[in-house]
Design a protein that fits this description.
The complex is a heterodimer of chains A (208) and B (213). By secondary structure, chain A is mainly alpha-helical. Helices cover 73% and strands 5% of the residues of chain A. Chain A has helices spanning 4-17, 29-36, 40-52, 71-95, 102-110, 117-133, 138-157, 159-181, 185-206, and strands at residues 26-27, 56-59, 63-66. In chain A, helix 4 (71-95) packs antiparallel against helix 9 and helix 5 (102-110) packs across helix 8. In chain B, strands 1-3-2 form a three-stranded antiparallel sheet. Chain B is built from ten helices and three strands. In chain B, helix 8 packs across helix 10. Chain B is mainly alpha-helical and 213 residues long. Classes of the chains: A mainly alpha (208), B mainly alpha (213).
């Protein structure tokens, strides 16, 4: 059973990482409270947890600031992914249940889920989640999931650019699925590396 | 509310320290009721602390209320060191380039001193500070955080594997001294190589003790 504090935490976090609360915005506690419709005590506990994760900053009198995103942040996040996700891809090539790749293969081939950028983003996120969990390394998975929460904000902000890159990313995903089906870990790792480097370039452009 | 979360943190830190220092050994059963009495902390904060510890794979909460400290398995060791093999050499390389040499002296003295035991809280804190100092040189707070997220899991494995392995304790100490020396020389390649060897030796020692049990 989830307690009310945990629900408040997840609701607010969702709004932050999908940029419904914009990076850099300053909000009052009441505004946040009204938008998730949960009592004040739970909201405060949730906010203090989110502050620990560096997603908000609690300003003593002014309110709550949603942490902004800088070029540096983009570099930090993508460098971390560049170092660790090829490892996840290499491990996934060994352990993944390839049946789970079928809906993604079909999706990327048929341009399904691509009717809106939001759907595309969540489809893409699901795909990377699958790879991370299929690494069969719970510690690596835990680290990458945390990085992903931070990364989602950047991706939502860079929607316009992402739509430009969409086709390129789609093909990279298909190549990756192919390597996973062949259980070729080295190839999967090198495609992942290229994929993240290209994503980084796109994300950096929006903050120029 | 602050009182409650402080109690939770206190319970969390206290139990975690006992687990990491192997005061409570891998595989041991923990009684939440007893802990609640000895620490004089209510059951709710204790339960929350255990949830957090389970998330870090330090305890396992079983359906019928029992709680056990997770065993250290061969798989855990391989999983953790696979990550470290990628991250730590690059942290050491960055540190060789930009670590503040003025801060190294105290760690050199610390690793030269052979009188402290592995599970002494001061030793653990000092070792943690040293690794944080090195990891922070990556100049990427997210990567540093990633390394520190799994650092406590490593500490437990290290303490456990050195409990009956005096040799490894001495070897690790001299590896740290070599590393500090490489930092003084600002030799990036050397720092990277020493770190790789250090990780391999630590991993082998951990595997040895886990397999022999």
């Amino acid at each position: 059973m989830k307690d009310i504090k945990a629900i408040a935490y997840e609701k607010i976090k969702e709004k932050i990482i999908t940029c419904q609360f914009l990076p850099g915005a300053i909000m009052t506690e009441i505004e946040i409270q009204e938008s998730v419709n949960i009592g004040r005590t739970s909201i405060r506990q949730a906010l203090s947890k989110l502050e620990q994760e560096n997603l908000v900053k609690i300003l003593s009198k002014k309110g709550i600031q949603i942490t902004s995103i800088s070029i540096k942040d983009v570099e930090y996040i993508y460098t971390t992914r560049e170092m660790l996700e090829p490892l996840a891809a290499r491990l996934a090539a060994e352990y993944i249940d390839t049946d789970l790749l079928i809906p993604f293969y079909n999706g990327f081939i048929a341009h399904a889920q691509m009717d809106s950028i939001d759907n595309y983003l969540s489809f893409d996120r699901e795909f990377h989640y699958l790879l991370n969990t299929s690494s069969n390394n719970q510690y690596l998975c835990r680290i990458l999931m945390n990085v992903y929460d931070l990364n989602t904000r950047i991706r939502v902000l860079s929607k316009k650019r992402i739509s430009d890159r969409y086709n390129e990313a789609r093909i990279e995903h298909l190549e990756l699925i192919d390597a996973l089906n062949k259980r070729d870990g080295a190839l999967a790792a090198s495609i992942m590396k290229k994929h993240i480097a290209n994503g980084k370039e796109t994300a950096l452009k929006i903050l120029d | 509310m602050n009182a409650l979360s402080t109690l939770k943190d206190l319970a969390y830190e206290t139990i975690k320290r006992k687990i990491i220092t192997c005061e409570i050994m891998p595989g041991d059963v923990i009684s939440a009721n007893e802990l609640s009495k000895t620490l004089n902390i209510g059951r709710t904060p204790i339960r929350e602390a255990f949830n957090k510890l389970e998330n870090e794979n330090l305890v396992k909460i079983h359906a019928k209320q029992g709680i056990t400290v997770t065993n250290i398995t061969v798989k855990d060791i391989l999983d953790l060191y696979t990550i470290n093999e990628i991250l730590e050499p690059s942290a050491a390389k960055a540190a060789a380039e930009k670590i503040d040499l003025d801060l190294l002296g105290e760690y050199k003295l610390f690793y030269e001193d052979s009188n402290h035991s592995n599970n002494d809280p001061n030793y653990i804190k000092k070792a943690r500070d040293f690794h944080f100092l090195v990891n922070n040189c990556i100049d990427n707070p997210i990567l540093t955080q990633a390394l520190m997220d799994i650092y406590d899991n490593f500490t437990r494995i290290r303490i456990f594997s050195r409990m009956h392995n005096k040799e490894r304790t001495l070897q690790a100490r001299s590896e740290h001294l070599e590393l500090i020396d490489a930092f003084y020389k600002r030799d990036e390649k050397l720092a990277e190589d020493i770190t790789r060897r250090h990780i391999k030796n630590a991993k082998d020692a951990a595997l040895l003790i886990t397999k022999s049990r």
